[in-house]
Amino acid sequence: MTQQKFPATHPAEFPKYGQKIIRQQQFLGEDQKTPAEKFAPLAAVFRRRLVVGIASASLVAFGANFGGIMSSVLGLSPESGRNLKLDVIYPIDGYSRCYEPSKGFEFIYPSSWVGDRRLLYRAVERAELERSLDPPPVDDSLPPRNFTEPVVAFGPPGSSGELNVSVIVSPVPSNFSIEDFGGEKEIAEKIVKKITGKRSDITATVFDSKATQDPMSRINYYNLEFKVESPSFCRHNVAVFAAKNGRLFTINAQTPEAKWPKVQQGFYKIADSFSLIS
User: What does each C-alpha distance from 8 to 5, 12, 14, 22, 160 come to in angstroms?
Assistant: First the structure.
């Protein structure tokens, strides 16, 4: 029987064959892996993308306050949210913030209330006049500018306007000081007389007056609760007065007397939130 001979392999060539065998075993070993093992790296990538997608969607949801989610979260710690001024965007405990740094004040008001459109229209008209290149017409019959017109006002949508909160900013001498008018009672009496004027058919009753001072800014705030009556109306008011840099700031919340029990606590909250800012 003839014996078949195979070519001899030089010892130096064994490493080459060994490497081929190892590579082949590795390839065969990969074929023997389970599907879960093969797709493990892809699963890790998918998980990372899923987490990023969920986080992004959450930010969008919070940013849009979908379903009041953000307001509910902030309601868990209302003071913290208000200190961060987040209620300018998201209502907190049913209140939004009117933040007017250019006008110098801020306060909170019921989030269901809306801004007075008449003030918006008049503001647009004034802006158009200021941008106009033509000089204003000279007409002595035109009434002078009314400095007692509110700069902002909010109230329930569709209401008659008797229930609202508004802010008036009036120019005063740079050295003006409310304290010069006396104590709390004297100041309250002078303010009430100014409101009623000389009309005998309008009377005013003061229920409470107090003065507080901001420990940081040293600004004095004068709170006044009063009622104004006439043959045609009876309104309950809560007002705050403060002066700064030649301007007198007045915030006033008013309501028909019949609705006072319902809005009383809300009015106190509005008044306590009023603050002058730079």
Answer: 9, 12, 11, 21, 110
What Rg do the C-alpha atoms of the chain give, in angstroms? 37
**Who has greater pLDDT, 53 or 104?**
104
Residues 173-198, mean pLDDT to the nearest whole number: 87
- pLDDT at position 60: 45
SS (H, E, C) 120-180: HHHHHHHHHHHHCCCCCCCCCCCCCCCCCCCCEEEECCCCCCCCEEEEEEEECCCCCCHHH
Query: What is the per-residue pLDDT for 185?
Result: 86
Indicate whether 139 pLDDT > 50. no
Instruction: Indicate the pTM of the whole model.
Output: 0.66
Q: Calculate mean pLDDT across residues 125-140.
A: 50
Average pLDDT over residues 248-260: 96
Residues 203 and 171: their CA atoms lie apart, in Å, by 27
Give the other-Cβ count within 10 Å of 172's Cβ.
15
Q: Where are the domains of the chain?
A: 17-59, 101-132+147-276
- Architecture of the domain whose range is 101-132+147-276: 3-Layer(aba) Sandwich (3.40)
